[in-house]
Amino acid sequence: MRSLTMVVPAFNEEELVEEFVEKSAQDLSRVADDWEIIFVNDGSTDRTSEIAHRLTARFPQLKVVDLASNVGNGANV
């Protein structure tokens, strides 16, 4: 049995969230028996979080983590 986890950072991606999750779910289902998507909302100010949480009803393999503020994904040097 193959298991995969995809961790996805997102910031203000309301226009792409649904399509991304749908296509990723299709692809992951083809290559893994057990899979999940961990969607990390990095303090978005649009509807990214709302849409992602709504998608968990259709995709129970989707987990949403909401960060309180935007922390970015790289070192601030």
Q: Could you give the distance between the termini? A: 42 Å
* DSSP, total strands: 3
Elements, N to C (H/E) = EHEHE
Q: Give the proportion of residues in helices.
A: 25-40%
Query: Strand sequence of the main sheet, in spatial order?
Result: 1-2-3
Query: Mean of the pLDDT scores?
Result: 91
What does this entry show, briefly?
This protein has 77 residues and is α/β, with parallel strands linked by helices. The protein is built from two helices and three strands; from the N terminus they run βαβαβ. The relative contact order is 0.26.
Give keywords.
77 residues; alpha/beta; 2 helices; 3 strands; three-stranded parallel β-sheet
Summarize the structure in words.
With 77 residues, the chain is of the alpha/beta class. Helices cover 30% and strands 27% of the residues. The chain has 2 helices and 3 strands, in the order βαβαβ. The chain has helices spanning 17-31, 48-55, and strands spanning 3-10, 34-41, 62-66. It has a 3-stranded parallel beta sheet, covered by helices on one side. The mean pLDDT is 91.
Can you lay out the helices and strands and say which pair or pack?
Elements: E1 3-10, H1 17-31, E2 34-41, H2 48-55, E3 62-66
Parallel strand pairs: 1-2, 2-3
